[in-house]
Amino acid sequence: MPEAQVRSLPVPDGLEGERLDAGLARLLGLSRTRAAELAAEGRVSLDGHPVGKSERLRAGAWLEVVLPAPPAAPSGEAPEPTAADAAARLGIVHDDDDLVVVDKPVGVAAHPSPGWTGPTVVGVLAASGYRIATTGAAERQGVVHRLDVGTSGLMVVAKSERAYSALKAAFRERTVDKTYHALVQGHPDPSGGTVDAPIGRHPTADHRFAVVSAQAGGKDSVTHYETLEAFAAASLLRVRLETGRTHQIRVHFSALRHPCVGDLTYGADPRLAERLGLARQWLHAMALAFDHPGTGERVRYESTYPADLAAALERLAA
Description:
- This protein is 21% helix and 27% strand.
- The protein contains 8 helices and 15 strands.
- Helix 1 (20-28) packs across helix 2 (32-40).
- The radius of gyration is 20 Å and the shape is globular.
- The model is unreliable at 75-88 (pLDDT under 50).
């Protein structure tokens, strides 16, 4: 039987003061009407207390939503695919004895973690019969790098033990080329350059990261960027990561006061995101290049924009 899903997540700063139904709709990609219905049914709580649709959100408060299970299909009929089913359809870009490269959709985590009940790359691959390297923590086996749940694009997972060791070393030694496209608010000045600023845990918000000094725990973080196209309200950038800190692109451009469009956690304007129909940050892992651990050959894989990001660009250009 299908089971209800529980989604737990912090309220980002960008939703401070928003009505619950509006904020919940943006966070989970629901209609505002459906978000209001969930609140009316007692399925939404804020810091452990049930709340109504007109409750005002508080940044950093913990939001918990119980999503009802989809109705069971009549006997002999296949069930209708759910949003989680759709999100779990990984695009397999390359597959061999050593590794698999996937085009991760938004809404899929790299691996299981506390508070996350949705699909994961590791879980979907395992359920689909893929053999994954057993090195590493149990919940992260085969994972040599990660993408945020709200970031789409290319990710490589190790299938063999030699691939795991070689790829971990390659990421550590910075020989992997990681290229992203990011749509940021406004126009960075200069239009291209390098951000070299250490990143660590945010001093007051556990769910966020920030530019902090090395003395305060910040780790070396280097981001290179160039502007591909400038629009009236935003700029499309090509971004190359030299390091791979959690939320690195999001943190660096937020620190420059040019947050990724739609990234409410790091200060993006929710009005622009709403106008562009975005329910997440506009950030996509476009290309990945590394030395293949089996052959030693330099390989490169590329992705294209998913539908929501492409549609946002079209609206911006209109």
